Model the fold of this input.
Amino acid sequence: MDRRSFLKTSLISSACLAPQIKFPYLFGAEKYAGPNIIIIRFGGGVRRKETIQSKYTYAPFFNKVLMPQGTLFSNMIIRKGEGIESSHEQGTLRILNGNYQMKKGDEGGVFDSHYQPDTATLFELMRKNFNLPEHKTLMINNEDRLQEEFFTFSKSNDFGSKYKGHVLSLHRFKLFILRNKLKALSGESKAKKLMLKELKKLETFSKKINFEIEFPEIINQFWANWYKLYGDSGLRNERGDRLLTQLSLMALKKLKPNFLMVNYNDPDYVHWGFKAHYTRGISIIDNGLQEIYRFCQHDPYYKNNTYFVVVPDCGRDNSRAAAIPYQHHFGSKSSREIFTFITGPNIKKGKIDNKQCDQIDVVSTISHLLQIKNNQTQGKRLAI
Done:
């Protein structure tokens, strides 16, 4: 469906989408007293140089304001090995389940590179251990990386989709809108056929992995409220990583998640060929991190009861001779050099740990902060 056709039908279900929304918070999660976890995936691949090195940083809030409030593990690496890639998809999975062993799915086609977690993710661990409802563990995702929307659950027999986290993204919003518009239509029409075609396209990937995307009632209410504020034209809401910040802030206000992962990705636009796409992407993430952190510092639900974990999915090359000097697909030393920063209750402030550590150590460390026994990760606990 083209934008014009979509806009023509945008008012069909507005009557049922527009009412003032009241968000029920009593969904059984109030027994969990914290701590809360917020993971900022400094994604799209970033180097240490433009982030944690003060002389060259494009992330002044993170570098000058936030880093003194916690502990920086400045010598984190992605190890070398057969099948281990310095990529967004693998890096995101390592942050979530702390393992290097991963297998590609068998869905084929354009998504044949999709990995499906074999061991439990942090979403599943939190939901199962603390009996949290789905909307209390959230991933905020970029629609350009659709496969990552299915990283909130694993193929583990002891966990799996029954303990999945929920995903908020522009892709999910489009699903919500189309499904509601189709409910409002009766009979057959050209508009309905176009919407059914678009819906089938949006559901292609989830169908290939035999997963049905469902919306709990509180998520339906969330998207109805979003629709009331921004419509569905795409002209009133932000785009790219600014949209992820916008979604994150609304989720923190309305859904009060105990676990939130924000999959920032704008620096990856450097593949278009300009350095400014990379450095500007870092600045946009830095602004988003500032907004999210400051909101939590003033909100009683999160203040003094939340750990922030900032970690890239991968690094980037340092090839000055390359036409695009910031690649990450060649497994260079720089593309495997990352970092992790942690701040929160009882975390040492202003500490920089230069000992070599591994990306898979993030999960072991978060499990320790949550006092969850996690035997499924290969990582070690960081010295916090």
About this structure: Confidence is low (pLDDT under 50) at residues 1-29. Residues 91 and 132 are 26 Å apart (CA to CA). The longest strand covers residues 71-77. The chain is about 35% helix and 10% strand.
